[in-house]
């Protein structure tokens, strides 16, 4: 299941900046589930505050930039955690 989620997170992020109808909740839900299955080392800095900002203004350009940066940071931290688990 983790691999399926990571495939969704790893897709091209160009559309996040251009499409104001992107479902941010879908990506946040995926990250939340992966966080539950791993540990706190994969949680990006200020995760809760950033998620609140994104959810409060999901169609704003800066919220989409924040979502893209949050996903990038999460993927990097999750990859480090996975390597340590091997």
Global structural class: mainly alpha
Q: End-to-end distance, in Å?
A: 17 Å
| Uncertain segments | none
Q: Which shape, going by the Cα principal axes?
A: globular
Q: What share of residues are in beta strands?
A: under 5%
User: What do the pLDDT scores average to?
Assistant: 84
The tally of beta strands, per DSSP, is: 0
**Count of all domains:** 1
C-alpha Rg (nearest Å): 13 Å
Descriptive account of the structure:
The chain is an all-alpha fold and 86 residues long. It has one domain. It has helices spanning 2-9, 14-18, 24-37, 47-56, 61-85. Helix 1 packs across helix 3, helix 3 packs parallel to helix 5 (61-85) and helix 4 packs antiparallel against helix 5 (61-85). The chain is globular and about 40 Å long.
Salient structural properties:
5 helices, mainly alpha, 0% strand, single chain, 86 residues
What is the strand and helix layout of this fold?
Elements: H1 2-9, H2 14-18, H3 24-37, H4 47-56, H5 61-85
Helix pairs in contact: 1-3, 3-5, 4-5
Please sum up the structure shown.
This protein has 86 residues and is mostly helical. The protein contains five helices and no strands.
């Amino acid at each position: 299941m983790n691999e399926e989620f990571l495939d969704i997170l790893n897709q091209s992020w160009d559309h996040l900046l251009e499409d104001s109808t992107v479902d941010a909740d879908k990506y946040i839900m995926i990250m939340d589930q992966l966080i539950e299955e791993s540990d706190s080392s994969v949680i990006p800095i200020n995760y809760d505050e950033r998620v609140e900002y994104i959810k409060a203004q999901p169609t704003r350009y800066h919220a989409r930039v924040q979502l893209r940066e949050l996903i990038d940071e999460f993927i990097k931290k999750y990859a480090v955690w996975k390597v340590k688990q091997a």
